[in-house]
Amino acid sequence: MQYIFNFASTKLRIKVENIAYLERLGDILEPCSNIILVGHVNPDGDSIGSVVGMAGYLEALGKGATAVVPNRYPDFLSFLDPQGQILSYADQRQEVEAALGAADLIICMDFNSLKRIDALGDAIESSSVPKVLIDHHPQPDGIFDLVYSYPRYSSTCELAYWIIRGLLRGSGLELPLHSATALYTGMMTDTNNFSNSVLPSTFRMAGELMEAGVDKEWVQKMVFGGYSQERMRLMGYMLLENMKMIPQYNAAVMVLTKEIKERFNFADGDSEGFVNLALNIRGVKVSALFTEGDEFIRVSLRSKEDFSVNSLSRAFFNGGGHERAAGGRLYIPVDEVEGYFVESLGKFVGNEK
Length: 353
Ligand SMILES: [Mn+2]
Fold this sequence. Notes:
Blueprint: E1 3-7, E2 12-16, H1 22-29, E3 34-38, H2 45-60, E4 64-69, E5 87-88, H3 93-102, E6 105-109, H4 118-125, E7 131-135, E8 146-149, H5 156-168, H6 177-190, H7 200-211, H8 216-224, H9 229-242, E9 244-246, E10 251-256, H10 258-263, H11 274-277, E11 286-292, E12 297-303, H12 309-316, E13 320-321, E14 325-330, H13 337-352
Helix pairs in contact: 2-5, 2-6, 5-6, 6-7, 6-8
This protein binds manganese (II) ion.
């Protein structure tokens, strides 16, 4: 099924696949006044950008919107939430539960399963109000009442932009500038600064948002110019001393242990983007970053060409995601991680043949 939306106001013909139920979202929103927007665990630019973008749209409609995330977002994203209105379930459990109790609609963004949002998932599951999903990860959970799941979009922010734009058409209302900026930011970070999964529609969105007043240089500065000295030194160390090449599988791996974190005074978000670095090396098709935490080892996987890290993660790393960007968890000692990765690649590549 394919729907063409002809945005008459700009004479642009934008193809939004399967957005057959745009009106249904409008209908669902109509009677609601307290809407909860939910982002994912370890929120990134796309997660915060999409909830802030949607919150602005709902406010333009005169509705109450509360954004909640399972745990705090990294500091560099605080420019999208200058008044600190986004609630973290880990730190503000009571406020989140009170907001959920008063909610008449829940919109989940940028994740496909309530398992991805830890304990917050249980709180959401037990709420009886309608639940909407807006996301670009494949294979969403069946618990949602209305699903906008489009894996071919660059980002949830891009998908949300086209949805909001469609809903705003003819309404005389406008998306507030801070929300437009948030959507731009999430699209920019999820595409790794316009390099992955970028479609003509992505550039159209960027162009329209710039015309609407989004200050692209400022966003660039806030996102890429705010690194700490420790983060840069950690990146240098990981590339020089830690990254290992696994040439037989065209792979590279980094293991960020607690010991290394301590040495570089690690703060949340400091390793953002590290997993992409090895893909810049000629011949590397798969890159992995394993990060030791208190309860498990966080797995980040990236790939190029036809290698599916979504399948690799589902088979061996208790996770999944996109074909070329996936996550997961491991519950083994950190010194066994590299061996396990090599072994998994062997089995995976063997099975593919
Ligand atoms: Mn995303």
